[in-house]
Amino acid sequence: MRKAILRRAGSPFSFGGLRQNTDSILPSAPTRFTRAGMDFEHITHPAPVPSDERDAALADPGFGTLFTDHMVTIEYDEAKGGWYSATIGPRGPITLDPAASVLHYAQEIFEGMKAYRYGETGEELALFRPEQNARRFNKSAERMAMPSLPEKLFLESIRQLVAADRAWVPSIPGGALYLRPFMFASEAFLGVRPAKQYKYMLIASPVGGYFKSGHEAVKIWVSQDYVRAAPGGTGAAKTGGNYAASLVPQAQGIAHGCDQVVFLDAVERKWVEELGGMNLFFVYDDGTVITPPLTGTILPGITRDSLIALLREEGLTVREELYSLDQWREDATNGTLVETMACGTAAVVTPVGTVASPDGEFTIGSGGIGQITSKLREKLVGIQTGKVADTHGWVMMLD
Ligand SMILES: Cc1ncc(COP(=O)(O)O)c(C=O)c1O
Asked: How far is CA 17 from CA 43, 122, 396, in A?
């Protein structure tokens, strides 16, 4: 049974309609928010999608192809002293000068997070660790020589959009409203230097499962010809170029019947790093779990961080250490490695069943979902949707 939630809205520290879920087992220091300090101009949508059409689309939203009615835009200009003009209005095409530097030098960052239907009735909506996305957004901005966006403004944009598009949050099992905040260099110039003008935008897409195969184990392709990120590069930032670099190997993987690509390190081509959009965990029969360390070439996943905490709570030993492809193959073959999980906001927790490369294939465990993967997914999804108590203060309720 879901426990009562203490509303913080209205207290001097409340942040608009966002409030930390403070279940009876309180985290030591619940996050407090103050207002974002910028008013949003609301532009009325002249023709939102009719409710019957919207509800029909929400019955099977797929992933990333269906969009809501609204979007947020905030402008930045160094000459104007920073961020200004926050609006929420109808979603639609934007105008960009052909010399906008993002089109030439890819100065761009983004985030990915979800709003979930929460509790027994699903009437309430919740976010999962959104302040971590705000923080990572600014880390990415720093690496890409872009201005930081105040965390409160980032969170307020999320609150505003979900409030405007709350009817777009799917009710189907596993469904959520995927939120895509992004920022790009909009200044028109052709010199290579950090831009002085940027646009922050937020759009939303109702989603179901990430993989077409649903909850089945995925097959992944080892990219031997290409790497995703090198030491000193931008691998730890959520910036478009990393994903552009992953598209050819991804296409190779698909051509070999795989769902995703796993990248090896750029120097020795030996150590397993991550998938194109997910972090990895390797589970042993003695209760040890290994995950690649955050050495600057992989994305510090929020799901990764959450799973480390949940695994430790379950009494498992988690080690963040380098893990080689050879070790992976050997341990899967001799049976000591019993599960491999891929994790991320989009795909939640997904079992890796088979690993394929030009050298051949190997299977992990039974090739299907393992016990730990299954238990962890249930727990994480349970926390995100209010079916399992949130003892960490990870959930933030939306009014
Ligand atoms: C390259 C990459 N690794 C890992 C992740 C998982 O990160 P998170 O758990 O924060 O969604 C993502 C998804 O955002 C990603 O794009």
From this structure: 20, 17, 10
